[in-house]
Amino acid sequence: MTKDPNAPKRPLTGYMRYIGTIRDEVRKETGLNGIKVTPHLSKRWNALTDEEKMPFNAEFKVEMAEHRNKVEEYRKTDLYAEHLTKKKTKKFKKKPKDKNAPKKPQTAYFVMCNEKRNEIKASLEKPTMAAVSKKMGEMWKTLSDEQRQYYIQKNLEQKERYAEEFAKYKETDNFLVHQDKLKEFQKQKSRAYSKRSRKDEKKM
Questions:
Q1: Residue ranges of domains in the chain
Q2: Are 56 and 15 in contact (CB under 8 A)?
Q3: pLDDT band for position 168 (cuts 50, 70, 90)
């Protein structure tokens, strides 16, 4: 979701106000930082009585009422209208995906990755995604021309198969339905950008 930088800032909740007063204290007690300290902050808040929470929640309620009024006023401004236009145009950056279309061929590198992934994971003490990806890159660089040619050939075979499957797919109703979706996508995208351009011209 596109964030509106000009919108009135939402006030801090009672919980956020409270933990702001104890964060440094809890950090020193636990020796933890960042997200690791969060459970300890939550535990301290949950241990408070309703009476102890009241001052923090009361401040939030007062400011939240003011915030709603500010939001209502802000939504009448040109800045908010501009934000809505940007939000609409942003969603048109990606074309609708055709879920029924044949899968595109993998590159030679990814053919190797799929074949060697389990082997690589087993060879690592900590097979994190980053570690596995790094190892795959290193393995690809060390392949001989003959070994690399094997994966290049696999890629060519997939390309040939894809071309045949896609040619058949183009004759189906699913393909035609998706083409209609693409046309509608382009129309809506053009309308959204045209509307935005007219607004920009008026400002100039």
A1: 14-76, 108-203
A2: yes
A3: very high
